[in-house]
Amino acid sequence: MVASSCYPETGPTIDRILDTLSDSHRREILYYFETVADGPTATVEEVVGRLEERVPDRDRRELTTAIHHHHLPKLESRGWLEFDERSGTVRYEGHQSAPALLEELAAAFATER
Questions:
Q1: pTM score, two decimals?
Q2: Which end of the chain is more exposed for a tag (fewer CB within 10 A), N or C?
Q3: What does the pLDDT read at residue 113?
Q4: pLDDT-derived band at 112, boundaries 50, 70, 90
Q5: Which of 9, 30, 11 is nearest to 74 (CA)?
Q6: Distance CA 23, CA 15 (A)
Q7: Which domain of life is it from (predicted)?
């Protein structure tokens, strides 16, 4: 069963949010901005440093490459943040629909059918 067939109006957005949140590195980046960062802007090095603390078994160079070339661009394409490659800065924007959609999703799973 596909979520979008169950929830034709919100399914595609829920699918995108769940896909975005399905990776632990992306969740750590979002968690960093939501709870640790001093403000909405950080350098890529600050983000990598935080992830390096939380995921100690990854080589820093590999982690930096993955964050720089995969995770930050994906979060940017999904509207969660702005990533300026030239300056190496990340500006967190959050996702205005995420809290409501995640609540709706939790309620859908909690509802007995």
A1: 0.79
A2: C
A3: 46
A4: very low
A5: 30
A6: 13
A7: Archaea
